[in-house]
Structures are given as C-alpha cells and as structure tokens.
Task: inverse folding
C-alpha cells in the first residue's frame, strides 16, 4: 500500500506539472467557464421584453384610449400607435411588429351596452414567443378594460364594478420573474460537462498519440494508479471552474442560493466524476485527439444541452425522448442545481439524484479501468 501511494503521488505530481505547463488545458479549464457563463448568462434569455405591438385605435373616444393605456406602462411591450388596420397588417407581414391590438370604432358604444370587445392578433411563427406576447397583451388589456367599464358605469352606462375580482399573484422560486435565474444553474451543468469530459478526453487521447502512456506501461505502476493520477488534477481544475461559476451566478447574475452550499459542492463532485470518467472512456477507446473531441461534444455536451431539461421541459416531449433524456446524467445534476439554487434543500430529491450520479460515476470509472489495459497493441 505504501508503494502504491508513493507511485500515485509521483504520477499525480507529474500530471499536475504537465497540466500547469499546458496553456490550452488551463484555457479550457479556467478561462472557458468564465467566457461561457458571461456569454450565455448575458446573451441567452427566454424573456420577452420591448416586443413591438401595433395598436390600432379606430375609436377616438376616451374610453378607447383608456382601454389600451396599460400597454404603454409595461416594459414587456412597445406599442406603436396607428389608426389604420391596413398599415398594421403591413408591419406584421414585414415582422416589424409581433402583434396587433385593434380597438373597433364602436368600442365606446358597445362598452356602455356591456358587450365591448378588443381584437388581439399575434404573429405565430415563433409559437413560444407568440404565447408570451399574447399573455402580456391580454393581461394589460383586461386590467384597463375593467377600469373602462367602471368609468362607463359611473357615467350612466353599465353598473360599475360588476364582476370586478381582486387577483393576488405570487411567483414561487423565481420572484424576479426572469429566465436568468432558471438558465444560470443549467449553464453550470453545461460548463462542467464540457470541462470534465472534453478536457479529459483530449488530454488522454493526446498521450495515446504521443506514446507517453506506453512509456508508463513498462514501469511498475498499475492501470488504476495511472487513471487516478489523470483524474485528480483535472478534477481539481473542474472544481475551480465550478467555484468561478458559483461566484458569477451569485454576484454577477444575482441568482439566489436557497439550498446548502455543501450539497451543491458534493453533487458537483459526483457529476464531475461522471464527466471525467466519460472522457477517460472516450479517450481509451478512440486514442485519437480529433475523434475524441468530436465524440466528447456529440455524446456528452449536446445531450446535456438538448435532452437534460436545460431548454425544454422533459414532461412536454414524446415518451421515447423522455426516456433518453432521463438516461443522460446531466438531467439529474440539472434538477439538483436548480432545486438547490431556487427551492432549497429538498432532501428526498437531493439524495435520490446524488445516488444516481454516484452510480453513473462508479460505472463509467469501472468501464474506463476495463478498457485501459497495460499492453501494447
């Protein structure tokens, strides 16, 4: 045991020096997480703000103006006031506006009679954006329509206040109502996947190409010691990248951290072992830098981006895609981080997902040990 520890320490020291002397590895492990979280954090957003909206006022009455007043007070919509429906349709076809709000010419008269209506038309090419714009516009119009009805009732029309209901709204787990709080924990998952799997696969494959691993095979060191010596430095650089991401999430993007920091770190350690193990398997099988880098991107980063719930809720996809998504380790780490950041310590979910990640880590490291043999082919 003492001899094994001595060999492992020597190998780890060698790998650490090699890592420090390699600018590309430092760039991937330290600079890449910073660049990615800044680009994605500031550039990627699912929020819709300042959506251009054509407002056609065919009725010049004060009631009609009151009905659309709320559209000008929300930061989510940018109304363009028009008097012609034809002009609004032209702007819609040119994609210069995302929707049209039409107040008919008899709005005030029908409002007094109690059957007024306002038409909302939304460009549906982007279904997700269309539904958001429609929801924003409808919400603003409903509030102003109620005020207009009250004014009309006070002026001798329909009874004021009939049907008025006070709605108290509260948003759990994302009180700022911003997609940044939802996306940044997912970005941490993607960055750790890229750093762990891609960097490890590239470095190991490069050593296979250069023959340095074959030189180690003629020494008394064992395969497990070689793999551990490879894991330790890159595990450390991955955790350093995690620390930078956590600092950026808290102080640059103001994402709250309701859960335990220790739980975040432990779950990240498990997932980083999964990513590093996957990179070792790829490099041992391919033994080619180009092929290893392509497989690392295709088999680890892309599934983490598309099938882990980062952009799409897995409950809304077909069953076969849902099954594949739940086979991706990033899915469980994504769920863990978002819960720990936004909801807090839900221990039943934390324990379950950590156990799943631990099983994946043991399995992948076992496969890496099996495919890495001390023999010259």
Result:
């Amino acid at each position: 045991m003492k001899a094994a520890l001595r060999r492992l320490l020597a190998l780890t020291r060698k790998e650490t020096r090699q890592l420090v002397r390699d600018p590309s590895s430092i760039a991937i492990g330290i600079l890449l997480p910073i660049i990615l979280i800044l680009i994605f954090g500031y550039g990627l957003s699912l929020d819709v703000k300042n959506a251009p909206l054509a407002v056609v006022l065919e009725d010049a009455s004060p009631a009609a103006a009151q009905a659309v007043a709320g559209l000008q007070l929300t930061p989510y919509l940018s109304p363009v006031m028009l008097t012609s429906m034809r002009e609004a349709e032209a702007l819609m076809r040119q994609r210069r506006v995302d929707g049209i709000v039409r107040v008919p010419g008899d709005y005030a008269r029908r409002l007094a009679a109690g059957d007024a209506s306002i038409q909302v038309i939304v460009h549906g090419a982007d279904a997700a954006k269309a539904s958001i714009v429609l929801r924003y516009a409808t919400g603003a119009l409903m509030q102003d329509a109620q005020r207009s009805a009250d004014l009309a009732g006070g002026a001798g029309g329909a009874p004021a206040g009939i049907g008025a209901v006070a709605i108290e709204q509260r948003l759990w787990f994302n009180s700022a109502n911003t997609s940044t709080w939802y996306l940044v924990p997912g970005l941490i998952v993607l960055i750790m996947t890229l750093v762990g799997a891609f960097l490890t696969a590239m470095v190991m494959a490069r050593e296979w190409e250069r023959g340095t691993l074959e030189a180690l095979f003629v020494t008394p060191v064992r395969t497990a010691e070689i793999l551990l010596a490879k894991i330790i430095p890159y595990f450390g650089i991955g955790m350093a990248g995690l620390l930078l991401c956590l600092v950026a999430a808290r102080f640059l993007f103001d994402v709250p951290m309701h859960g335990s920091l220790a739980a975040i770190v432990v779950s990240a350690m498990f997932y980083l072992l999964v990513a590093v193990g996957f990179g070792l398997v790829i490099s041992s099988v391919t033994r080619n830098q180009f092929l290893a880098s392509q497989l690392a991107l295709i088999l680890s980063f892309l599934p983490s981006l598309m099938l882990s719930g980062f952009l799409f809720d897995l409950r809304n996809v077909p069953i076969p895609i849902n099954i594949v998504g739940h086979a991706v380790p990033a899915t469980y780490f994504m769920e863990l981080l978002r819960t720990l950041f936004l909801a807090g310590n839900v221990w039943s979910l934390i324990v379950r997902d950590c156990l799943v990640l631990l099983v994946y880590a043991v399995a992948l490291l076992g496969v890496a040990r099996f495919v890495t043999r001390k023999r010259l082919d």
In short: The chain is about 65% helix and 5% strand. The mean pLDDT is 83. The beta strands are 51-57, 77-82, 99-103, 119-122.
